[in-house]
Amino acid sequence: MNVFAFITLILTAFTLLYYCYIANNTEEHDVSFFISVELIIMVMNLCTNQGGVFGLAWLYLVVDLVFLGVGWLIDAQDSVGFYTSIGPWFKNTFTDKDTILWKVLSFVLFPAGAVLYFVKYNNDATLAKTCGRAAFFGLLLWIVLLWAILGLAL
Fold this sequence. Notes:
Distance between the termini: 15 Å
Structural class: mainly alpha
Strand content: under 5%
């Protein structure tokens, strides 16, 4: 049951990214309700995993699957755009030989990424923003992983 709870945590993060993409790429639809519910579900999922109440993972799975289906009903064109943008994003992120080491360093060691942001900002603002963004996402990942691992272990 622990594995299922962790899978629903990953699906919740995916659904949250999906609705953030729709919010950024459409002016016609307000999906702030779905984003806020997904944020609440993310925190609830982490708390119930920490509390050992893994039976609620079914509820999170159902809500995520319903929200993914509703997202297609809200805007099918942007939904297709989200799924087709995943491949090029990976290609652009991991084939850029000039900044890949900076991105990996900033993501894995987020304090180093934050320092690189401030050090490189005056000389190379693009590289500084890349390091800062990677450090921010690295920090978020470390927080969620630490919370999830401690929740499952304790």
